[in-house]
Design a protein that fits this description.
The chain has 131 residues and is of the alpha+beta class. The chain has a single domain, classed as Roll (Thiol Ester Dehydrase, Chain A), CATH 3.10.129. The chain is 26% helix and 40% strand. It has a five-stranded antiparallel β-sheet with strand order 1-3-4-5-2. The protein is elongated and about 45 Å long.
Length: 131
């Protein structure tokens, strides 16, 4: 399937007292990766919400913390879309440094309507995600 890579730097604010990236910040990093993945396919999430009342929400995350990232590391967040269903998207995401995978996650997103209920994705959105 399709993939994208986002490069980001670890800042002091991302670390804990031990000088390593605080575990919850990996979730922020992969969120940025997913956002840029969708943006790169021409999907404006703000316009989608304003025009159709549709948003994407995380339904499930399965995460493996393999090795710590540290202050000033240059990280690569790879996002690979593995499956698009009627109302959900499955993605594999990794965070690596110099070719070594530090973090791995399987993420399930669901398309929600303004009432917070799962809704089938518009065909145009589904098509954009698979290009």
């Amino acid at each position: 399937m399709t993939s994208d890579t986002l490069t980001l730097r670890v800042y002091y604010e991302d670390t804990d007292l031990a000088g390593i990236v605080y575990y919850a910040n990996y979730l922020k990093f992969i969120e940025r990766g997913r956002t840029e993945f969708v943006r790169a396919r021409g999907i404006d999430q703000s316009a989608l919400k304003a025009g159709q009342g549709i948003v994407f929400a995380v339904r499930r995350v399965e995460a493996d913390y393999l090795s710590p990232a540290r202050f000033d590391d240059l990280l690569h967040v790879e996002t690979v879309m593995t499956e698009v269903k009627g109302a959900s998207i499955l993605m594999d995401q990794t965070i690596s440094r110099d070719g070594t995978v530090l973090f791995r996650a399987k993420v399930t997103l669901v398309c929600l309507n303004s009432a917070g209920r799962a809704q089938r994705m518009p065909d145009a959105v589904r098509l954009s995600l698979t290009l």
